[in-house]
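Q: What does the assembly look like in three dimensions?
Context provided by user:
Components: two
Sequences:
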Amino acid sequence: MNGVHDLGGMHGFGPVVPEPNEPVFHADWERRTFALALATMGTRRVNVDEFRRVIERMPPAAYLATSYYEHWLHAIEALMVEKQIIGRDEIDARLRGDGGLPSELAPPVAAVADEADAALWSNPDTAAASRSSAVALRHNPKFKARFKPGERVIARNLNPEGHTRLPRYVRGHRGVIRHDRGTFVFPDTHARGAGANPQHCYAVEFSARELWGAEHPVRERVYVDLWEAYLLPDEVTAARAKPAPAAPLAGQKIVKTVVAKAPKPQLKKLQAKKSPSKKSRVARPAPIRTTLKRAPAAKSRISKKASKRR
Amino acid sequence: MSDHDHEHDRDEHDHDAHNAPESGPALRVKALEAVLVEKGLVDPAALDAIVDTYEHKVGPRNGARVVARAWTDPAYKRRLLAGDAAAAIAELGYSPGPQGEHMVVLENTPRVHNMVVCTLCSCYPWSVLGLPPVWYKGNAYRSRAVSDPRGVLHDFGLELPADVEIRVWDSSAEIRYMVLPMRPPGTDNLSEEQLAALVTRDSMIGTAIVPPPGR
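A: Here is the predicted structure of the complete assembly.
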């Protein structure tokens, strides 16, 4: 969602002020909040994407007025109540003083302690199992990569109301795939209980000028790890720019003139090679909901040219 | 404040300003913990263990040892940078726990300076750096690191030459990043342990460089 948590590029928050000799926690309630968050996630009843989703849904003014661990506390409460694991009335009863403090309560169930332990991964067996499943997914050859390092891409202009890890400041901007990070659970669906939807995630390089304008230093780049569903091949934009040159994406005027320079001479050849490229187009996964045709044959030339310019 | 704070028992903190009885979060977390414990969903002893781990066992000293090893052992450095960084880190006994499963280490050079941020929340490589400082989680750093990295470095008192390329890594997905800072000059005769003692947390986030010894 387009929430206030999506801070990249915002102004007005002042200088960064590091605290000398900062303690790990500033108050005991921060310790308990942190530990409760890990323990509840360790029970597998809550996943980290859901955790982020409920923080992002905080009213913007409340988000900005509260601290990091207050966000966490809100998230645990909200998810426990949403999942009907506990009732809001139960928390309220405790707040009114009906009921004992944690130390006065019955001893815990041993199995639950093991699960909380697993959250820490201090149990070597659980640690190995959890990590190896994440690593196994990451390297599972069943999930094919749509993009290769060096390919030019455009971050889609998506504005979902739910959770997403596509920051606003890259949407609609052109970048280059630098690293294929492997396959990971897709947070947009995982956060709302709509499945893991595993897919490749890539480190995409954006120049500071592309993101922030021509006044920015050339020697500055931003790398953002983006899931495949957030990305389109940049040729789509190039092809779209060809018949109707005056169709830049919103807020992309400067960028468009910069990028249009390179692919232009290639576009005629691109058109000419359309039919031989059909085969390779079929062999690859279909682009996400776009009616525009891709032209992979021209791609390598464009990216070679583009990388020369960098 | 740190030592004082650490000595507190968790039921003896009411005079602490952060924990004043009327303050919302202190009461709320107590109520929440009570309900979750009552239902057998969490174990207070497990919570204590989690706190102890992150307060006393995991922290930037782990990362500093990784850096010092990379400075002194070229084969290790290769594994750290080009191989599975989490596995290379685990070689030093730091298990890839939460927020350390998928690590990438970024090497700073005289030409390239890397720095790490999480604009959307506060993702951070816990297994090597511990929990993030308040400024890393704060709005100022998260908003400006990607759009004005030199300005942010200025806030930290670091001015880099104009011909140094700045690369900002936004930890927007599952990869957690740690910077391998440059080894300072005048450290040829130092042992691995002495080198590790020079390495600061901020140099592994990329908001500082490692100063030469004695500075």
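Follow-up: Residues 103 and 176 of chain B are 5 Å apart (CA to CA).
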